[in-house]
Fold this sequence. Notes:
alpha/beta; TIM Barrel; 7-stranded parallel beta sheet; about 15% strand; disordered N terminus
Amino acid sequence: xxxxxxTISKGRPWTGKxxxxxxxxxAGATATFRLGGDVTIKRLGFGAMRLPTQGxxxxxxxxxxxxxxxxxxxxxxxxxxxxxxxxRSGDGTxxxxxxxxEALQPYKPGxxxxxxxxxxxxxxxxxxxxxxxxxxxxxxxxxxLGVKRLDLVYLRIGMLAVPHGESLAxxxxxxxMLREQGLIRHLGLSNVDPDHLKEARAIAPVAAVQxxxxxxxxxxxxxxxxxxxxxxxxxxxxxxxxxxxxxxxxRLARVAVRHGxxxxxxxxxxxxxxxxxxLAIPGTxxxxxLLENVAAQSIRLxxxxxxxxx
Length: 310
């Protein structure tokens, strides 16, 4: 199996050069979505998971490089950043939320920072928080981001697999209470199935769902359809496979060559083409990859392209 980088090289190599990028291809070129019916965000955002470390809980990356990526993303018009207080290096010295606060505070009007609560990183690895932990986790995010109200908080349940049949009511009820108290603007769910969504919506409005979904992993298309029917944002995590799935294929490579693009860019363009409620939050700690990702929104896939990518 080819590595993603080897597959990407079949398309036009991305140089990382910022020639006229700010004036010609910015996040403003893409369509927007009304999150929760009252917050306008651009459909191509930025995921902060890779800012503290290259992999999961690996060695710390240069924090200044992360701050530069964040500033450049906002300069390019990105107004939706996805993060979590548990996004941090293995030694805990570099934290995504702290980098966001340091790089972007005072926050630009209209910038939406979404975070998530649920997993707790303990000395023996991650485990799931209980309802009694929710308030503290929300307060940790408020403090690390330096805000008085969080724009969007996802309740993340399970680890990698969706925990079918597991109730989320007690945990979500606490978040709904914190929303009523003004600490949270909108609520979301992550790693859930339609039954979880139904259970949560009986408690409080759900503005967004974040599940593992990309061009090489489409099992959750039914959840996307449920979200579309209810005007709920569908925000795939790992929109490019998360380093665990090779999204490359001969079909993707052929479409990439036709557009003078990379496979990564075509995968993002495909995702944005799926539905008006589909958002993309590709993450990177590299300025070159940031520019590559932002440029993907200018790609207009043809009917021939989409048929080939089915």
